[in-house]
# Entry
Amino acid sequence: MRPHRIEPLIEAEALAARVRDLAAQISADYQGRDLLIVGVLKGAFVFCADLLRNLHGVHTQVDFIACSSYGVATETSGVVRILKDLNAPVTDREVLLVEDIVDTGLTLQYLQAHLRQQNPRSLRTAVLLDKPYRRQVPVQVDYRGFEIPDLFVVGYGIDWAEHYRHLPYIGAVRFLD
Ligand code: IMP
# Structure
């Protein structure tokens, strides 16, 4: 790995408070309804788990989809591959797609199109971190945690080449070379 250090960007307490806010909005919007939460592996697994545990009055089911666009680099390749698809089609379901980061928008655009092909009754998207400066395609985001600068971030489930997912906060990778 290139020489680097991790600088805290969003503390654990701030993450927890924002996730509670998002969950309150989602709970209000889907009160009493059935909702299929689709978490995007691997990066969104912590966000997805915390969001889920803060929902109230919503009948939830959970599924996961895994995709890759980065490999081991810090730049997106722009080519999205599905590594693990959903266990069942989302036809006629109310679906909430839960993603860690929207950057260029290519991954979300691909995943939203993939789910829409299956004719869900509704499809909304929750994203923890939004990096709007590098957007290449417009994408719909219904619930957004934080807007962040154009930094490479890790922690709270998000990795750099599979490292740092365990950090309880979001940190920015500062390269020292
Ligand atoms: P996009 O396709 O460029 O919008 O990138 C979205 C995906 O790239 C996310 O699902 C992340 O997995 C990954 N990604 C984007 N920015 C970062 C980052 O700062 N750290 C780690 N992964 C990132």
Observations:
- The mean pLDDT is 94.
- The pocket of inosinic acid is lined by residues 43, 69-70, 76, 99-108, 152-153, 158 (CB under 6 Å).
- The helical segments are 12-29, 45-53, 106-116.
